[in-house]
Amino acid sequence: MKLIDGKQLAASLRAEIAKGVADLKSEKGVAPGLAVILAGDNPASVSYVTAKEKACKEAGMVSREIRLPETVSEAEIVALVRELNGDDAIHGILVQLPLPRHISDKAVIDAIAPEKDVDGFTPVNVGKMLIGERCFLPCTPHGILKLIEFSGMDLKGKHAVVIGRSNIVGKPVAVLLSRKETNATVTLCHTGTPDVAKFTREADVVVVATGRPGTLTGDMLKPGAVVIDVGVNRIPDETRPKGFRLAGDADFESCSKVAGAITPVPGGVGPMTITMLLWNTLESARRALA
Prior knowledge:
- With 290 residues, this protein is an alpha/beta fold.
- 41% of the residues lie in helices and 17% in strands.
- It folds into two domains: 29-114, Rossmann fold (3-Layer(aba) Sandwich), CATH 3.40.50; 139-270, 3-Layer(aba) Sandwich (Rossmann fold).
- It is globular and about 50 Å long.
């Protein structure tokens, strides 16, 4: 069984990105700029935004972090996004979700100019992804494709099963896996699927993204299958200093005995999400200069 090391792959890609940033600075005098908007003080969001800022600086990018109070209005955030749309020093705009309850995620995301939508969330980029046009791919699904490639699996003609139909991971990764350049046959399973194991036992690749630990177990796998575990769940564990441990949506112990390759949690999909965000920001800067 091969452990698919997301940290190793992310480090390699980030070195490539840093070189691209350095070349852009020396050749064009331009540093890619990413603006990150955070409303409120959700601990998970704050931690994630801090990690993004650190990653930007390490890659040589300009990071503009804009922190807003929980009470900020929807109109104020939309106005800020539109202002950033017109700022030539900013090549990517990221709005950290979830937003406070009184603000519509859709209204804010829709305000982002598609050419600066480095999260790949706007309807324009989602639509272009669906029909195979050039666009910014959503970061986690794009990272998942890179991890499968890194595992050594050639997806052409293979059967891929995606468990979970979220707009952020499940649906877009199913689309990407089925595109002509990838050419996998894709089954999308969800809470309405009567017997998920029926499909996963026939799968060469299983991507599990449900937010529920133990969704995928070893007896549900075909021997040698590649497993990409997107889940990050806190499991109470009194033996750990923080009182919990992190676990994925796949039962690692049983799945690792059957799978040919599997991502760990943590250290699998997680490091790739921010990496692909940097990838998109660099690409946005390049396109702005084309």
